[in-house]
Specification:
By secondary structure, the chain is mostly helical. 65% of the residues lie in helices and 6% in strands. The chain contains ten helices and three strands. Helix 3 packs across helix 4, helix 5 packs parallel to helix 7 and helix 6 packs antiparallel against helix 7. The radius of gyration is 21 Å and the shape is elongated. The chain starts with a strand and ends with a helix. The mean pLDDT is 77.
Length: 196
Amino acid sequence: MTIKYGNRVKPAHKFVVSQESRYFQQMLENDTGGHITCKLEEAEEDLDSIDRMFAYIYHANINHLKRKRDDWQTSFRIYHVATKYGLDSLRKRALEDTMMHASDSGAETVVKAVQAMSIHGTDPSVKRAEEQLLGQHFLDLMQLPAYVTWMEGQPARALRHNRQMAKALMTLQNAPVNSRPSVASAVRKAFDSVPE
């Protein structure tokens, strides 16, 4: 089969893509044989993510086309492509990479990543990833005006997190210096237990 997306053309094997992708599996369910051409409607910024999806399908390795300048946005675009085309293992890996890149880049980047995740990601794994990022960086986040402003416009769950973080910060500030690491650990545990 031939797959076209944007200005790119990818020769592919029907058996291989249908084994890895629910999207192609459904498309080829009633295939009667012969060569087919499939056109994927994708935004220009997702074309590289599609390339990586096919690299993953054929090489089982997201790193096959990895670039030095990858960031959380690149990984999150791969996550969206993997979700759209039904590649669960790639979706999981791309979400892990999104979290890693955002976390490594500091609190301001975490805010941007969490904002993007909350707008575009509705599945439970994205919500868990958001909360994990918030939990890992909540002390730094509380000091960022952009985060506090963003949280003010969020639904009830985010506001509960905001109150939890405020309590956590006060607890840490009031704790003796030598016991702060253990207090931080207890606070993080409390933060993680905020109910749905």
